[in-house]
Amino acid sequence: MTKLELAKLFHKTYEDLAPLYGYKTRKNTRRFVEDSPNGQLMINVCSNILQQLKKECVCPNYKHGNGCIYRLDGKCMKPEL
Questions:
Q1: Is 57 helix (H, G, I), strand (E, B) or coil?
Q2: How many C-beta atoms surround the C-beta of residue 31 within 10 A?
Q3: Can you give the pTM of this predicted structure?
Q4: Does 7 have pLDDT greater than 90?
Q5: DSSP 3-state assignment of 42?
Q6: pLDDT in tens, 38-69
Q7: Are strands 76-77 and 69-70 parallel, antiparallel or unpaired?
Q8: Are 24 and 63 a contacting pair, CB within 8 Å?
Q9: What's the whole-number average pLDDT of the chain?
């Protein structure tokens, strides 16, 4: 997943869940705009998160960033080809 894909997923999920928590998002940021200040901030936050996940990823069989899939249990997995 790229930083842009993660940012878009995060934004959509945030917008979908906000009403469930009684939160009304700002009208001017409800649509994800990649080159807006809000969009750029979200993309950079997601980039930092992905970099941190790669650092924490421990995979004995594959190099980091080479098909390694991070799981929340701290393990990496890659389907055998």
A1: coil
A2: 10
A3: 0.67
A4: yes
A5: helix
A6: 999 999 999 998 887 776 555 555 555 555 55
A7: antiparallel
A8: no
A9: 80
* Position 42, amino acid: M
73 vs 71: CA distance, rounded Å: 5
Beta-carbon contacts of 6 under 8 Å, excluding residues fewer than 6 positions away, are 46, 49, 50
* Domain with 58 in it: 3-77
How many separate domains does the chain show? 1
Contact present, 8 and 45 (Cβ < 8 Å): no
pLDDT band at 81 (very low <50, low <70, confident <90, very high): very low
**Using CA atoms, how far apart are residues 28 and 66, in angstroms rounded to an integer?**
38
Residue tagged 């969009």 (tokens):
39
Q: Give the span between the Cα atoms of 77 and 59, in whole angstroms.
A: 7
Say if residues 4 and 34 touch (Cβ distance below 8 Å).
Answer: yes
